[in-house]
Amino acid sequence: MGSYVEKARENHVKKKVEEALRSKMKAKALNECDQYVSKYAECATGRTFSVVWTCRKQAKELNTCLHQFTNDNVLEEMKREYMLQEEGKVSVSTM
């Protein structure tokens, strides 16, 4: 029974770490694609429904850029880096 609780806690921590990594990934993507965010925002300013067809080009450019930095491969790489950092902390603390 104790191992079930421990696994549940580990999974909860893993979920929290993954959420944090996703958040970091999104923030980096927005930063990297800042010029496209600005172009889209400029196009969308003062529009409501017409933004969908008027700013289609800017939206596509923004999404293409964002996808480069927010996909499963990027997330998996961030997870690997996190795990390596954690392993490094554990090995340093055991010395």
Automatic annotation (TrEMBL):
Superkingdom per UniProt: Eukaryota
Family assignment from sequence similarity: Belongs to the CMC family.
Keyword terms of this UniProt record: Disulfide bond, Mitochondrion
This protein's name: COX assembly mitochondrial protein
InterPro entries: Cyt_c_biogenesis_Cmc1-like
Gene Ontology terms: cellular component: mitochondrion
Subcellular location: Mitochondrion
Major subcellular site: mitochondrion
Pfam families: Cmc1
Naturally occurring in which organism (per UniProt): Eutrema salsugineum
